[in-house]
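Justification of resources, computational component.

The compute hours requested in this renewal are based largely on the per-chain cost of generating structure records like the one below. Each record pairs the submitted sequence with a full structure-token output. That output is archived, and it is also reused by downstream analysis tasks.
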Amino acid sequence: MKIKVKLFASLTRYLPPDSKNRTAELEVPEGVTAGGVLDQLGVPEKLTHLTMVNGVQQNRDSVLREGDLLSVFPPVAGGLGRDGPRAHPACEGRHECTRTLQVSKP
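The structure output for this chain reads:
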């Protein structure tokens, strides 16, 4: 059966080379789970934070059906480091950042 897999952010490196727009169309066996597809692609379980099937949050044990869209997001980090504000993520490592993440303290 055919399904589509859409991986976001750092997970896109696990998509097949012919993928477009962070999406791949895959031929998978009947009864395959979301986790089975991610294992087939080599996506480490610890890097999968949010798994959705057709826009609805599911777990890795969800059985997929013909035409399903499996979307997966990695964990997201942010906020203050131990030393206070840190460089804006879009700038980190590219140049001296003049912006910082602003966090209000209670």
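The longest helix spans residues 34-41. The helical segments are 34-41.
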